[in-house]
Amino acid sequence: MLDNMIFKQLMKHSFTIPVEVTYPNGKTEKYGNGAPQVKIKVNEKIPVKDLLRNASITLGEAYMDKKIEVSGSLQVLINSAYESANSFLNNNKFKRFLPKQSHSEESSKNDVQSHYDLGNDFYKLWLDKTMTYSCAYFEKPDDSLEEAQMNKVHHILKKLDPKPGSSLLDIGCGWGTLMLTAAREYNMNVVGITLSEEQYNAVKQRIKDEGLEGQAEVLLEDYRELDRLPFDYITSVGMFEHVGEENLGEYFNTISRYLKSNGVALIHGITRQQGGAYNGWINKYIFPGGYVPGLNENLTHIIESGMQVADIEMLRRHYQRTLEMWTDNFHKVLPEVRKMHDERFIRMWDLYLQACAASFESGNIDVIQYLISKGPSARTLPMTRDYMYKD
């Protein structure tokens, strides 16, 4: 009885939009003014002790197991919960510290492979043709996802102001679009590094297919173990979110070590302006070992590693739109996904995409590009930012 009362109070104060909640006893309650924008059906009792232990895991698993069903947009519902000061996502009564994450080289390899080695065929279903699994860059309102992903690649490379024949290291190279574009269109000598066997095999084949064997190379190893000469430029997209809070300093020190004097790096990743954070459900089901660092945290590590900041750009709204497009694509190919995965996985992945879109929409997280140099800031770069936008 007490659990029911507390859970109803939790629902009553958790959203900024009108919602309708149907409880396991069949009784329906409406919260907020106006017609419900989203309807929630609670099929089984949710123990409050589990919510207090970790609300994100408890509610995420309840949705995956159909203990909770939602009619309407998950993104709208979760964004509303982020915007409510009294929701379980913001109220300190429902937050807890997570145990320290392990990020040995072996655990990092397992973490990466658990997500990225779901199979190239799975990602091909809902990513665009570039197979780019990170925030796109929408220069025009009507850019397609593929156009926006290529915009992002060129936006990153232009920020480096690269010279033909120079060397580039791409840490966490994904399926290779950025590094191979740098080789093919900017005449750079590139090395990509990944821990995903699926990505490694795909990039290796692309290098062969595009005739770039003498100019591009991909390595399957931990970024901390690279035994190469320093590079003129370094890029790293969507990588530092996976190294763990305790290894952020090592990550930026490694970048500094691999950069030549006055070298330039573009680091692109998810960052919280409010400070670093874990998410229990994301850590358990999507990105094991994941940690979203705070803006101040990253800046401190950059400076302590002997580098300086040349430019910072926030792309929060771009990632929201990217995730919304991925969600639409995912929904369109559900018949094909069902041939690969069960309904619990599908509900998990749908929740992941829409929850992340909501988190960016609400400003709970951001994605930021850090343009940094080894030595005085931007010593080798043009005096103004105009060069970043020239064809």
TrEMBL record:
InterPro entries: CFA/CMAS, CMAS, DUF7884, SAM-dependent_MTases_sf. GO terms for molecular function: methyltransferase activity. The active site is at residue 356. Residues 6-93 form the DUF7884 domain. It holds the Pfam family DUF7884. It comes from the Bacteria. Gene3D superfamilies: Vaccinia Virus protein VP39. Signal peptide: none annotated. The keyword S-adenosyl-L-methionine applies. Its EC number is 2.1.1.-. Belongs to the CFA/CMAS family. This is Cyclopropane-fatty-acyl-phospholipid synthase. It comes from Ligilactobacillus salivarius.
